[in-house]
């Protein structure tokens, strides 16, 4: 049964107004809840997978948010997986409508507190199309950040899996990406075009020519990037 705001279901504090908007906020208005829903809609299913994509959210609070969504009928939990129900799926145009609005009215260059290299690399790991690299298996990408605490990351791209590594893997490196953390964030989110970043020297890629050319095709970029590009075109 979908949550109706009763205390027995453990929903948020009520607003005391008989209105669909307030009922919606009682389910979705708590901090982090919509971001958890966002990641579930983007395909995250396991607890650790969701946690890695939201490093600012403690595991204890994430557990509470997921339990809340289960009680409120937006998520089902079984066999170690969290899957969205039709009620959560119906939020897709609303969640990505917020992306469209934010790209147009609230987005710009990243603030320092928004830059986390590990989070970005986790997002990129989930957005690699291995088929674009052809028959090579694996393809190893080394990311060298020009700033930030941790400067080196590796992606081991196989046909059926992409692994994020924090120590050098036991394979030869095929591509080296040298870039500022803020720049790669903006490229990933569509705020800076990949080609423009390369042309301006903000991002350099070295390695075998065919793989260098394949990299921008292999990067699927953020699911929000289209909204950001559209907003930039409108401006």
UniProtKB/TrEMBL annotation:
InterPro entries: HTH_HxlR, WH-like_DNA-bd_sf, WH_DNA-bd_sf
Record-linked Pfam families: HxlR
Lineage top rank: taxon: Bacteria
Domain HTH hxlR-type: residue ranges: 19-110
Cross-referenced PROSITE patterns: HTH_HXLR
GO molecular function, one term: DNA binding
SUPFAM superfamilies recorded: Winged helix' DNA-binding domain
Coiled-coil intervals, chain numbering: none
Alphabetic keyword roster: DNA-binding, Transcription, Transcription regulation
Annotated protein name in UniProt: Transcriptional regulator, HxlR family
């Amino acid at each position: 049964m979908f949550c109706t705001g009763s205390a027995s279901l453990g929903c948020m504090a009520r607003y005391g107004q008989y209105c669909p908007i307030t009922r919606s906020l009682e389910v979705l208005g708590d901090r982090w809840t919509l971001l958890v829903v966002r990641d579930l809609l983007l395909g995250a299913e396991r607890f650790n997978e969701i946690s890695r994509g939201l490093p600012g959210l403690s595991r204890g609070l994430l557990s509470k948010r997921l339990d809340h969504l289960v009680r409120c009928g937006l998520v089902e939990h079984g066999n170690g997986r969290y899957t969205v129900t039709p009620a959560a799926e119906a939020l897709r145009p609303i969640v990505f409508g917020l992306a469209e609005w934010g790209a147009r009215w609230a987005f710009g260059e990243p603030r320092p507190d928004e830059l986390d290299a590990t989070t970005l690399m986790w997002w990129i790991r989930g957005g690699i199309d291995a088929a674009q690299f052809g028959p090579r298996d694996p393809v190893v990408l080394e990311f060298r950040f020009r700033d930030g605490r941790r400067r080196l990351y590796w992606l081991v791209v196989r046909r059926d899996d992409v692994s994020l590594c924090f120590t050098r893997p036991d394979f030869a490196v095929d591509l080296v990406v040298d870039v500022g953390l803020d720049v790669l964030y903006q490229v990933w989110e569509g705020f800076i075009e990949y080609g423009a970043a390369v042309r301006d020297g903000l991002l350099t890629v070295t390695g075998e020519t065919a793989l260098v050319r394949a990299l921008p095709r292999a990067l699927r970029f953020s699911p929000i990037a289209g909204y950001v590009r559209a907003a930039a075109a409108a401006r």
